[in-house]
Amino acid sequence: MAAVGHDSLDSRALRNVLSENELLAGFYQQAPQAPQYWYAVDYQGVTVGVLLMAPIRT
Q: What is the pTM of this model?
């Protein structure tokens, strides 16, 4: 998870304030089923990112 955020422009302010565990806890609090929706994104045999596609509760 730490490597994914390295040099990322996504949520820069949050990355500077919250730890990786705190960010993940926020995801899981909103969507406890979220772990089953994590996907590794591979390019040419190398993991280059992750994708979370948890459904939104309404």
A: 0.46
